[in-house]
Amino acid sequence: MNYFMNLVMSGLVIGTLYGMVAMGFAIIYRATGMVNFAQGEVMMLIAYMSYTFASIPGMAFIPLLACVLAVSVVLGLLIEWAFIRPMLGEPMFSRVMVTIGLAVVIRSFVILIWGVEPTAFPRPFGNEVIRFGDMALYPGQIFALVSLAVLSLAMWLFFRRSRVGIAMRATSNNETTALLMGINVKRISAIAWALSAVFAAFSGLSFCLMFSLEPEISQMGLRGFPATILGGLDSVVGGAFGGLVIGVMENLAGGYLGRGLKEIAGFVLIIVVLMVKPYGLFGQREIERV
Questions:
Q1: Segments in the chain forming alpha helices (H)
Q2: Closest by CA position to 11, among listed 273, 268, 242
């Protein structure tokens, strides 16, 4: 029983990373109807920038978090302004290809500036294990779990209570109609990219607090994308839930069926779910009238 619970808990921890990455995918899709394939690279860039801030003598964690979030918002706004806004009105395929090119540029930039060698990230909370009964968690893992819970609640309130959330959905459905209805599409797009960068900041910082920092962190983008599909491509909170489910499934498959099946367990789950619910667990069905 302890073995099972440890697998579940460690799966939930890695699932928080998937979930935060998935939320970044979903917020942009919900606002613009496009998939940002540079999400993993944005996460990597912010993680390395976090390392630079953390290396400043006397830098405490709260100021570090504030700096990282501020920089992430600026980075998200800059990416949207420089690369995405000029593509408004262009075919969706062209816009998606821009994000793929952006991913290559960011990855090359990070390797050029920081190198490819794994780097140990400072541990502001220490490395002492915190026990909850029979389960033990490191402070960085607790930070990741709490971050996902807070972000999920914030996004649920955002889309329930905020007019901006409704405007995001309208823009995603039909950009031209949204413009005619008086929605500031450029503003909505900028907010979505800023929020996506915030999710990347939390996921990148959480990764650094649990593992060593290396360029391969960008692979979390591709590994987190299935969580977006599972939860629903247009459901931000669903992406968080999908990340937790896939993280647990991967760990259980690796623990009981063999490590070789760990990598494909999430994709098998997605295939099964999509055969029943083509729009994901929490995705909204699109209805077209002809």
A1: 2-32, 39-54, 61-79, 92-114, 139-161, 163-173, 175-180, 185-210, 219-231, 236-256, 262-276
A2: 242
Residue 208, classified by CB atoms within 10 Å of its CB into exposed (0-12), middle (13-18) or buried (19+), is buried
State the Cα–Cα distance between residues 273 and 231, nearest whole angstrom: 10
Backbone phi, then psi, for 148, in 5-degree steps? -65, -40
What is the Cα–Cα distance from 32 to 184, expressed in whole angstroms?
Answer: 12
- Give the start-to-end residue ranges of the domains of the chain: 20-220
SS (H, E, C) 73-137: HHHHHHHHHHHHHHHCCCCHHHHHHHHHHHHHHHHHHHHHHHCCCCECCCCCCCCCCEEECCEEE
**Is-above-0.70 flag for pTM?**
yes
Residues 6+ apart with CB under 8 A from 124: 54, 60, 61, 64, 209
pLDDT 10s digits, 72-130: 999 999 999 999 988 877 888 899 999 999 999 999 999 999 998 888 888 888 778 88
CA dihedral 176, 91, 87, 192 (to 10 degrees): 60
Q: Which amino acid is at 67?
A: C
Contact between 18 and 227 under an 8 Å Cβ cutoff? The reply is yes
Pair of tokens at residue 225? 């994308």
Task: Give per-residue pLDDT as tens, 118-166.
Answer: 888 888 887 788 877 777 788 889 999 999 999 999 999 888 888 887 7
List beta partners, residue 119: 213
C-alpha to C-alpha distance for 73 and 86, rounded to whole angstroms: 19
Distances (CA, A) of 275 to 270, 272, 285: 8, 5, 14
Task: Give the model confidence (pLDDT) of 215-255 as tens digits.
Answer: 889 988 888 888 999 998 888 999 999 999 999 998 888 88
